[in-house]
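**User:** I keep going back and forth on a fold encoding question. It is easy to fool oneself when nobody else works the same problem. Could you pick a protein and write out its sequence and tokenised fold? Could you put it straight underneath, so I can go through it closely?

**Assistant:**
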Amino acid sequence: MHRRRSSKTQKQPLSGHKSQTDLSAWRKGGTTNTEKSVQNHQSPDIQKSDSEQDSLQQALSYFEKVPGRVSLRNNPVLQKHLAAVESIALQRGLPPEGFDVLLNVALSGKLADTVNTRLLKSLVPASVVPEDSVVSSVSWLCVSKCSSNIQLLFIRWLITMFDFIERKEQLRALYCVFFYLLQDERMCPYICHLLYLLTTKENVKPFRVRRLLDLQAKMGMQCHLQALLSLYKLFCPDLVTITLPGKIKNFFKNSEGPWKAAINAVKQKNFPVHQPLVLGTAQPQSRKRKWNAQLVVPASSTNRANLEENRVNNADSYSTSQSFPVERLQTFSQLLQNIHNLEFPSQMASVLTNPLLLHYMNCIKDESVHMRLYFWMSQTLQEECPWCVADSHQNEEEFKIFLETVYKTQCFLLEGFPSCEEFLYKSLPLWDGVCCQSQVLKLVSWIPLSSFSEMKPQLYDPLAQLFFTSSLYFKCSVLESLKELLQNWLNCHMFHPELEPESQVHPLSTTLSGLVNVVAELVHFVGRISTVALCLENNSSFLLHFILSFYEIVCDVYLRYNLPLLILPPAGVFYPALLSMNPVNLNQLCYVMYRYRTNLVAAKENERSKKKILQFKISSQTYKEYNQYVIAMVGCLWTSNVFRKDTHPQGLHMDDELLKETAVQEFKTSFNIVYHPAMIGYAVRFLQQAFPGDTTYNFSLIKGKKWNWYLEYLYAQGLKGLKVFIESSINRVSQAPHDKGEEDEQED
């Protein structure tokens, strides 16, 4: 990556031909072809652009030569040029050549504060801000030519435009200058913010730590001071020995207020095409503000100065004393060779799209990297959320792309970001369930494990309120998200039975009992909302599929995840599935009950053999409830005595007198595997194949050997759940024939 020429060397006299060419290139997006200019000169739009170019050219020339102390009142020339700069800057952004002139005049004190304020608020870049222009502007702060209000506004502008600045080596060299400005109480919060962005390990010195501690003793526990001290402590923990808060929700004050609307307008005009974000090794591109170019996450680059040709050509050999620039990181082998010398980019957003940097985050637990990423992501999510910020609805598509990128990053790292957790907890009560629906529910699936008392009011309650009042599709989407959440928790916090429970340290200091309790509360929560949802949606088969998919994970947590927990689905889920008219739901239920049996048998055998599995036992109530469910299933599907044998309080038990009053013939067999509403279609097709000439569809013919044939036919149709349930449970529950079909089978 070659160094761009500095703005000092690029800048020509504004009245000269060279400056005209530069501004023409800016106006036409870099095209300076004379023939095209002449041809397009006939267009009204081009004529308007030419007029704007001329106006900006004249304005820059005027401000470059403006004498000191010019009054805005009764000065039509100044008013005209100031209005031209404002209009063009707020619509299209300013070219790089304009910043040196406007920053110098605004900070030199030649004009009144009213004019200087308007000029600073107009400094919106069309592409980048030259570093030399910023460095020369900082020198004006040292001579006190401008007022404190203008100095403060300039620092806020510098923070807002930080990622537009080309290269930052010279700016970082002024670290001591900015640090000196901490003594100004008004500027202190914003200077801390700027220092936070500029700080590297080399900047952390004992005298600076002492100065920050003195300021904290003087001002009290201020968030901006704590944030900077936290960063210092991460770089040099031996220098900062005081205890600091583990999590600061709001680091710094918002600095970009005066420029945010203009930035959005310029980005919509200059970058109208939405770019999909894909995880990959992106090549360095021009740096734009992290969330400004359609919230496009920039390519990773440390914005270093021009790398010498010998370093560009030299592949991987860096000494331990040299830092390895991110823009040179292209392969996994380079990452391994330079993992301790890697210099992270100044733009933490670029980490999200670089798998090699994400591998680094997984391998090297560098708290400073996590802290910087947490700060940036918290600010971005808070300021760009369409349903939390009044004027952000127009950026919904951009926010979707950004959330999708964050989700992919979490999937890559196999862990959720605390900043996303805070964002969801703050925004879910305000969410309408429609805006960015898919992306928000994906983020929900990566919420880190925490106590139920914290999650209930911030996650479960607002989610349940939306769940009950939204469409069937939304209900299914929420259930899918909660299933993924459970899966992620179990994968990230799996306990190993060969180790002692308390010796297994997990994130958030989660103990085994704490994990069991949190997972159990999630399962109970899904059970409650599923029961209500089935009533609201008339036992929808589509909804039931997602509910049973959730329990396909729950039924296997004992064996698959070594977690001593088994929770059966509530009766409000079990019986609608058992009586469902959809064979997919019935097959799912059979598989779920088969896996529950396998896990319960394993738990019972471990208890009998006195093998201590994590020092926990499955409740006897769970065994009792499982037996009730199995009796009901066998009574329905096989023995045809469900109305007499079902003992569950919410089960299907009915007196014979009541059943006879229904006038249903053969009510006992109404739900076996032949007559069950979900299975009768298979029975019809079986009869068509077994008795091609019989059109009466006499289901009583399915008995004896044909009963076995019918079972094989069902298994061949893909009903594997029914197969494993019958093979594992029927003979153990029913050792003797109980119905006519089975009597005939035994006789044959």
Q: What stands out?
A: The chain has 36 helices and two strands.
